[in-house]
Amino acid sequence: MAKSKDKTLKIDIGIGKDERKAIAEGLSRLLADEYTLYLKTHNFHWNVTGPMFNTLHLMFETHYTEAALAVDLVAERIRALGFPAPGTYQQYAALSSIEETEGVPEAMAMVRLLVKGHEACARTARSVFPVAEAAHDEPSCDLLTQRLQLHEKTAWMLRSLLE
After folding, report:
1. Which residues contact 56 (CB under 8 A, 6 or more apart)?
2. Do 29 and 124 form a contact (C-beta atoms < 8 A)?
3. Interval 124-147: pLDDT, tens
4. Are 144 and 128 in contact (CB under 8 A)?
5. Per-residue pLDDT for 8 more than 90?
6. Cβ distance 36 to 120 under 8 Å?
C-alpha cells in the first residue's frame, strides 16, 4: 500500500520550531500593536480639528500610510516563520498593549495618545528582540530594529509638538 504524500514541506531555516514559535508570538503582539496604532492614527487623521488641522492631518496621513506597509511586513515575517498571522479585531484587542480611544479627543490629546502608542510599539518590539537574537533570527532582528527606529523617532517628533 502506497503512503499518502505529505504536501507540506518541513520548515528548515536553521531556527528550531520552538524558537520560531516564540518569535512569531512576539511578532504577533507587535502586529497587534502596529495595527491598533494604524487604526488610531487613521481615525485621528479623519477627525482632527483646530488651528493645526492641516499640519496634523497631513502628518497623521504620512504615519498611517507607513503603518499600513509595516503591518504587512510584520505579518509576512510571522508567516515566513511558519505560523499564522493574527488578522481580526478580536485577536488584535487580545494581543495589543494599546488601548482604544473613545470619542474624538482634541488635537493635542491626539498627539499625546499617538506618542504613547508609538512608545508602546517600541516597548513591544524591544521585548521580542532578545528572543529573535538568541535564535540568530537576523531577519526578525532587522525588522524589529527598523520598527524601533521608526517608533522612537516618531514619538520624539510628536512629543516635540507638545513643548
Report:
1. 44, 48, 50, 107, 110, 111
2. yes
3. 999 999 999 999 999 999 999 999
4. yes
5. no
6. no
Radius of gyration of the chain (CA): 18
Instruction: Report the C-alpha gap between 30 and 71 in whole angstroms.
Output: 9
Provide the terminal-to-terminal Cα distance of the chain, rounded to the nearest Å. 76
pLDDT at 9: 77
What pLDDT shows up at residue 4? 52
Q: Residue 96 corresponds to which amino acid? A: S
Q: How many helices (H) and strands (E) does the chain have?
A: 5, 0
Q: What is the mean pLDDT of the chain?
A: 94
Question: Could you give the count of Cα atoms lying within 13 Å of 16 in the half-sphere of its Cβ?
Answer: 5
Q: Does domain 21-161 have CATH number 3.20.20.140?
A: no
Q: What ranges do the domains of the chain cover?
A: 21-161
In sequence order, what are the residues at sequence separation of 6 or more whose Cβ sits closer than 8 angstroms to the Cβ of residue 74? 27, 30, 31, 34, 85, 143, 147
Residue 11: strand, helix, or coil:
coil
CA distance 157 to 71: 21
Per residue in 35-66, pLDDT (tens digit) is 999 999 999 999 999 999 999 999 999 999 99
